[in-house]
Amino acid sequence: MSSIVPKIKRMTTHSMQEMKRKGVKISMLTAYDYTMAKMVDAAGVDVILVGDSASNVMAGHETTLPITLDQMIYHASSVVRAAERALVVVDLPFGSYQGDSKQALNSAIRIMKESGAHAVKLEGGVEILESIRRILTAGIPIMGHLGLTPQSIYKFGTYTVRAKEEAEATKLLEDAKALEEAGCFSLVLEKIPAKLAEKVAKSVDIPVIGIGAGGGVDGQVLVLHDMLGMTHQFSPRFLRRYLSLYEEITQAVSRYVEDVKLKHFPNEDEQY
Hints:
42% of the residues lie in helices and 13% in strands. The protein contains eleven helices and eight strands. It has an eight-stranded parallel β-barrel with strand order 1-2-3-4-5-6-7-8, surrounded by seven helices. Helix 5 crosses helix 6 and helix 8 (166-182) runs parallel beside helix 9. The longest helix is centred in the middle third of the chain and has 17 residues, at 166-182. The two termini are 38 Å apart.
């Protein structure tokens, strides 16, 4: 593991807050299954997000809305079994917390009990404070999420940058402070202007993780399949691809198919 990765036996919400205090950047990636989570954890990622983006990259849905609570628990359980160091945060899926704080608490409890995860993440600001407060009464850590909130995509009608106008920017800053005051241990800011994200990070004491929010925040998160180049048709401005696995995997499979057809596989050394 790289020497720049903090030597922490197990990441916790307290560890994240200490990293912000010391100016150490926080790394976060998504994972949805045991094998990928094992590699992500071994590489030293601080936080693994079991995101509702599984709806897109694992199930092929156009939005994050269709994924269910049972499916999120399944994915989270697989990740938790793999993670020895990283803090595992799980998205509460659409429909499991909005508008009903009792349902929100029950959903969060199910995730924590049935998957063994360490925290949950909710999208929204002051409009979901009742749900946040109720979940926190059970001692469940909450990561907030502001800016572009994919569960509200039909409300926005677009995946464009959020909070470019003064009114929305002001509300986002107020929401961030409200989430901190309510007791959230950290916050994700998605696809907002870099200057606004930096202002938010300096305005709150909790760690702020960005995705498409510039480098002035306390850490970064990407969808694993995007940064590995598996979702090759998705190319937002904020995405840096570290591999091109779509091409590499399809080429490898193509060679396998050819070897089988030409009777090159298996050879004499590959059989009993």
